[in-house]
Design goal:
single chain; 130 residues; alpha+beta; Pnp Oxidase, Chain A; 7-stranded antiparallel β-sheet; 2 helices; 35% strand
Amino acid sequence: MDNPFGTAGTAKYVLLTTFRKDGTPVGTAVWAALDDGKLYVWTVTDSWKVKRIRRNPAVTLQACNVSGKPTDDQVVEATARVLDEPGSDRTRTLIKKRYALPGWLVVTASLIRRGRNGTIGIEISPAQPQ
């Protein structure tokens, strides 16, 4: 399996940093699943990170703990894309597979609580070299 994200590609929690209009970074610890050289994140549809990604797809990734504290110094620049419904369904499947029982429980509970449109997948690709 191709992993262009270093430790962030295999970490249990990933610090996903998005950027506000003024360039201020905002980091959030998320679950992520690596598949075919891309990282997939699952989140609430109306979250601020989704709004920021729609406006500016540039993100950074870093391995972290559950509270968002980085666990290493490797920061990876990447590009995020908000997925459509089939892509979000695929992301849910990847998260359930990667996180086993806890992933299945959280994703299933969210589907019951919010419905299929309440959460969305985000696909993250490594930044293109300049």
